[in-house]
Design goal:
CATH superfamily of the domain at 324-535: P-loop containing nucleotide triphosphate hydrolases
Oligomer: single chain
Helix content: 40-55%
Strand order of the largest sheet: 5-6-7-3-8-9
CATH topology of the domain at 324-535: Rossmann fold
Distance between the termini: 44 Å
CATH architecture of the domain at 324-535: 3-Layer(aba) Sandwich
Number of helices: 21
Largest sheet: 6 strands, mixed
Strand content: 15-25%
Length: 634
């Protein structure tokens, strides 16, 4: 059954269409990620699917019995409308069934005619069964479960939504939409304004849901955990991929690489043929030249690969600091009442890339301000190393003036000697090119402002980069460029982020905040998450019937838990992934060769290609096994 179908959709606001030829179908239970570069029309497409906007061409087919719900970023509420009111609105159909049941019960109580009484009783029984089927007798529990999962306490249920922040209002709307359980959920950036803990709760909820959903998100980790199919939208249409973000990202690179090789080979063939025709058109081989000219006219031209160019971000080589950058000994910090964190000892070494994450208001930014000397600790002491020069990126983007052009906004204090050409080259390196570089910052999109602020950070020649939520507003291609730039930066990096994928790609250590404390872990976010799972597993009560605790006479077995032995030699995960990509590209090339009639007509060549294919397939399987082992044991 098809719940929702897009048929050759196109939408245009300017000279060029935002997108065209967009066609796909949504079936029950499918969890689809909708991705694409900034400005590719993802939100516009979601509005068209929901019936809130009309396409310029094409149509949307909706199953007549399917309910479609959309999460919108801008909301209006009735005067005095509370958080509880908004949540209960998601279950309004159940409240209506309850009212019907109450009315029937009242009619049954006064019915005198036996036939009428039987008819009412049958209707009541059917209604009661439907209420039980939809779990309508536990409505308050369902509301509590969703609101608490999204970070609300019961104390605020009765507060008017007009008194909440924009982010809290969006969470209230999300709660209502989750409770309503439409047949198709259209979620546009559902993780905006959510911390990691709340995002993980939402992942669990969506994974347990049997509803179909289309998700737009910049959170790559979230897409990996929830989606099983990915649609990439560009101006020219939509490309369908199997799997979540990581599968899509790898398949996309393979597809682009294969298209590039096919295109390059065809261009080489065309160039050679044209050269032969030019040299021999009037000579002894003129008949051959004319024959090749006719063949060339019949060649179906391969399209150039439609790749999306990532900006070549890079931070300059900085002045070298001492071996350590910040040294905190037993520090506590807070402004009133209980401290945000206490007794923290931390030494930040040159070359560290430390990711900081945790709930909103837990003290992440306060820790950075304390380490850099902007705030004095409540207790303990902080020392700053030699030759430390910090550069700061704030998520509000106040470092770049709204009334200035991008070129003027990136000029740092104390560098009047930078020429306009140097400044334009700098902003271009971060993806702000052409006429865009001469626009005022205030007229730019969020992604363009972020790139401008990053360019200004690069102009400061800092050897310690401090970034607060740098991936907000950036698309996947810009995020990947920033990740590479930070990994290659030889200085020190401290950053606050809710982006778990970014934490995984950049961090060498992480600081995890919880109310009243923070803990330091070696490795990236995945290493932290694995350590947390081990801690929870160790603290869990034993399963009934499971072996009891070890005897005191066997301490060695208690101290050394069984650990999987390596089957393969140690290798970095990234190196194995590179080999996997190469093997998959090689398989695609061999598949193309096996489909070539010229190869199939040559018995020896066909046998060689087939043997090469089987060997590459076996190697790929072994690499995947090696990759899984490296993920677990490295």
């Amino acid at each position: 059954m098809i719940l929702l179908a897009a048929r050759e959709l196109a939408r245009q606001f300017d000279v060029e269409p935002i997108f065209r030829d967009v066609s796909f179908e949504v079936r029950p239970g499918e969890k689809i990620g909708l991705v694409g570069p900034n400005g590719s029309g993802k939100t516009t497409l979601m509005h068209i699917l929901a019936g809130l906007d009309d396409p310029d061409h094409g149509a949307v087919e909706r199953h007549p019995g399917a309910r479609i719900g959309i999460l919108e970023q801008v909301q209006e509420f009735p005067a005095g409308w509370t958080l509880r009111d908004e949540a209960r609105r998601g279950l309004s159909h159940l409240f209506e069934l309850q009212d019907q049941a109450h009315r029937l019960a009242e009619q049954i109580a006064v019915a005198a005619d036996s036939r009428e009484l039987q008819r009412l009783q049958q209707r009541y029984d059917a209604l009661h069964n439907e209420l039980e089927r939809q779990d309508a007798y536990h409505i308050d529990h369902r509301i509590d479960q969703v609101l608490e999962g999204l970070g609300f306490t019961r104390a605020v249920y009765g507060r008017p939504l007009s008194t909440f922040s924009g982010g809290q209002q969006n969470r209230a709307v999300l709660a209502r939409l989750l409770l309503s359980e439409p047949d198709v959920l259209l979620l546009d950036e559902p993780t905006n304004h959510l911390d990691i803990e709340t995002t993980e709760w939402l992942e669990g909820w969506l994974n347990r849901s049997s509803r179909a959903m289309v998700l737009v998100s910049h959170d790559r980790y979230f897409l990996d955990r929830v989606t099983e199919r990915t649609l990439e939208i560009t101006r020219s249409g939509v490309q369908d991929y199997v799997g979540g973000f990581s599968h899509y990202w790898r398949q996309r690179h393979e597809r682009i690489e294969l298209m590039r090789k096919t295109y390059d080979k065809q261009q080489e063939y065309i160039a050679r043929t044209e050269e032969f025709i030019r040299r021999n058109f009037a000579g002894q081989k003129s008949s051959q030249a004319k024959d090749r000219e006719k063949k060339l006219e019949r060649v179906e031209l391969a399209a150039p690969p439609p790749d999306i160019e990532a900006p070549p971000m890079a931070f300059p080589e900085p002045r070298r600091t001492g071996d350590w950058v910040f040294d905190a000994a037993g520090i506590s910090q807070g402004f009133s009442g209980e401290p945000l964190f206490r007794d923290l000892s931390l030494q930040v070494l040159r070359g560290d890339r430390i990711g900081i994450f945790g709930p909103n208001g837990a003290g992440k930014t306060t820790l950075i301000r304390t380490l850099t000397g902007e705030l004095a600790p409540r207790s303990g002491a902080v020392r700053i190393g030699t030759h430390v020069h910090t550069g700061y990126f704030d998520q509000q983007l106040t470092s770049v003036g709204a009334s200035e052009t991008a070129v003027d906004a990136v000029r740092p204090p104390g560098k009047p000697q930078m020429t306009p050409g140097e400044l334009r080259s700098l902003v271009a390196r971060f993806g702000v090119r052409g006429e865009l570089a001469l626009q005022t910052v205030g007229s730019m999109s969020g992604g363009e402002k972020t790139k401008t602020a990053l360019a200004r950070l690069a102009a400061m020649d800092a050897n310690v980069l401090i970034l607060d939520e740098p991936t907000n507003h950036l698309d996947f291609w810009s995020c990947e460029a920033l990740e590479r730039a930070l990994r290659e930066f030889p200085g020190t990096v401290l950053f606050v982020s809710h982006d778990r994928y970014f934490l995984d790609q950049v961090a060498t250590r992480v600081i995890a905040f919880a109310p009243g404390r923070c803990d330091v872990y070696d490795g990236n976010y995945s290493a932290y998450h694995w350590a947390q799972e081990q801690r929870v597993s160790a603290a869990a009560p034993p399963t009934p019937g499971a072996p009891g605790p070890e005897l005191e006479s066997a301490p060695r077995r208690r101290e050394e838990p069984a650990r999987r032995k390596r089957k393969f030699p140690y290798r970095k995960v990234a190196d194995i992934e590179a080999d996997i990509t190469a093997a998959e590209i090689r398989l695609a090339e061999l598949q193309q060769d096996l489909a070539d009639p010229a190869v199939l007509r040559d018995g020896d060549r066909a046998r060689t290609v087939h043997e090469d294919y089987e060997e590459t397939e076996q190697r790929l399987a072994q690499l995947m096994e090696h990759w899984e082992e490296a993920l677990e044991l490295n």
